[in-house]
Amino acid sequence: MLENRLPTRQTKITGVVLAGGMAQRMGGTDEGLIQLIDRPMIDYVIASLTPQVDTIIINANRNLQQYRHYGYPVVADTIGDFPGPLAGIATALSTAETDLVLTVPCDGPWLPSDLTQRLLDQFTSQNADVCVAHDGNRMQPVFGLFHKRILPDIEDYLSAGERKLQLWLKRVRLATADFSDHPEAFINVNTPEEKERVERILSGSTSTQ
Ligand SMILES: Nc1nc2c(ncn2[C@@H]2O[C@H](COP(=O)(O)OP(=O)(O)O)[C@@H](O)[C@H]2O)c(=O)[nH]1
Ligand SMILES: [Mg+2]
């Protein structure tokens, strides 16, 4: 059972680690389980996410047994063929018991410690359906806060054969939260070269700047 270490927050939030991609640029290796220095990549994400949410779900499409070792529910996409992150978001929204779901990718080891708070502030003040992070140049929609009420619209969109998360966002009341002061948050590991770079940064031999 997770302790909610944000006593001022009344709204319950489920954190979802999106680990359901094919990771083609990684040669198809299951991204969340790739070793970064001495631990699977998802360990870093879960460690940063835990104090920010009330409960966690892992969304994965392979190696479900290994993901279950973390002790959280592991859910596979309800739509097959790896249609993209929106399928993972839909799966999470249909599984979560809270109205609000925070998504993060499994391949970014530096989640801001105030990710939830900043997304929730903008979500609430802009009366949004969805609030996503903005890095100063562009939206980073897999770092997002989604309300359960938009699930039917995602399902319609996916059933129509649409896939693109960025385009789907045009259909909802969208807020963004500024994280331009956290450029490291959006460094993610998509290729073996990026993995090497991130490992160098984590081991302290170089900086994120
Ligand atoms: N559930 C699910 N998640 C996916 C799928 N494709 C990608 N993802 C997840 O979405 C996130 C972003 O995917 P990634 O390939 O790293 O995209 P990029 O970093 O934006 O180029 C990662 O956490 C992936 O695991 C999918 O088909 N289903
Ligand atoms: Mg990525």
Instruction: Return the average pLDDT rounded to an integer.
Output: 93
The CATH class name reads: Alpha Beta
- The level of helicity is 25-40%
Sheet-strand content, in percent, reads 15-25%
Strand arrangement, major sheet: 5-4-1-6-8-7-9
Shape: globular
Number of helices: 7
Rg computed from alpha carbons, rounded to a whole number of angstroms: 16 Å
CA distance, first residue to last residue: 36 Å
Fourth-tier CATH superfamily name: Spore Coat Polysaccharide Biosynthesis Protein SpsA, Chain A
In total, the number of domains comes to 1
Q: Architecture, according to CATH?
A: Alpha-Beta Complex
What's the count of strands? 9
Order of helices and strands: EEEHEHEHEHEEHHEH
CATH names the topology as: Spore Coat Polysaccharide Biosynthesis Protein SpsA, Chain A
What is the SS-derived class?
Answer: alpha/beta
List the keywords.
single chain, 209 residues, alpha/beta, Spore Coat Polysaccharide Biosynthesis Protein SpsA, Chain A, two-stranded antiparallel sheet, 9 strands, globular, binds guanosine-5'-diphosphate, binds magnesium ion
List the topology elements.
Layout lengths: L12 E7 L15 E2 L2 E2 H9 L5 E6 L3 H5 L5 E2 L9 H11 L4 E6 L9 H11 L4 E5 L4 E9 L3 H9 L5 H4 L5 E5 L13 H11 L7
Parallel strand pairs: 1-4, 1-6, 4-5, 7-9
Antiparallel strand pairs: 2-3, 6-8, 7-8
Helix pairs in contact: 3-5
The structure holds guanosine-5'-diphosphate and magnesium ion.
The site of guanosine-5'-diphosphate (GDP) has 19 residues, from strand 1 and helix 3.
